Amino acid sequence: MTDNGAVIDWLTDPEHSDPSIRWQAMRDLLDAPHSEWAAERAKVETEGWGARLLALEDEDGQWAGGAHFPSDFDFDRWEVEGQPWTSTSHSLSQLREFGVDPSSDRVRRAVELIGVNSRWEEAEQPYWEGEVEPCINGMTVANGAYFGVDMSPIVERLLGERLCDGGWNCESLNGSVRSSFDTTINVLDGLLEYERSGGGTTESRAARRSGEEFLLERSLFRRLSTGEPADERYLYLLHPNRWHYDVLRALDYFRSACLLTHAAADSRLGEAIEHVRSRRSENGTWPLDWSPTGRVWFEVDDGQGEPSRWVTLRAMRVLKWWESVGVDELEPPASSL
User: Fold this and answer.
1) SS3 250
2) Maximum distance among all alpha carbons in the chain?
3) Which domain holds residue 29?
């Protein structure tokens, strides 16, 4: 694979790729007609990873018997195994990433059952009412808005939890007054999906812009105080992200936000863009740097260090968007990696 065409063929290979990858490559990289990529998207519910994950749903609508953690998870094993990713919240996030049709009868039934039966481990709150951590609530808003649930009450809570620097931090519950990259990107994803679903308000849009500014002021990965990387892991390309932040996730967010709102691309994304470009392999793909440890239903990548269809899809659509808006014609940022 030495050119984009060959890489796209690899992403859309009907024998070795998955419908969840193929339909997004058709839409975002090939600019295929809606009828074509929509037909491929419909297969997510009945074939591949999407069908496999839906088949693992419990009779009560949950996954693994719990809202954020499996019902049988022993928290003493956390340090040994890592956080588990098989519960309802993470399964919904993965179905959303796959692009399963939220209007299908099968999916709508699951969403309704979750509302009736699932309770957060923190204080037994009904699932679609959210819990206390902004990171978790951001993910819940993203999933709920995507699947057609009214997320306004949780959004209102998140707006009230924004910190003075413009972002969010789960540790604010313990007194932190400084936002985190990880929490902020989860809340931004939620607010953007809320806006995409038609629920955006003047206040939620302003909060989303302030969270964006928190990231942009830091070139998506730097400390504002020293200019050093806030965390070297933010420069690694990972999948699935779960609650974790990396620059490619942030860039994909900004791409999606600009396409939805018709906002101009910000030149402060340029350094992160160049980093993503630099990570491309000679064969045109991008490798998987790491995945969060912990129990999963099944793998959707071929392993650390191997070419990743998910990372490659996201990198290619971000770069395609960036090149289309012509921001590279602007003066490059003064700092460098």
Assistant:
1) helix
2) 56
3) 1-39
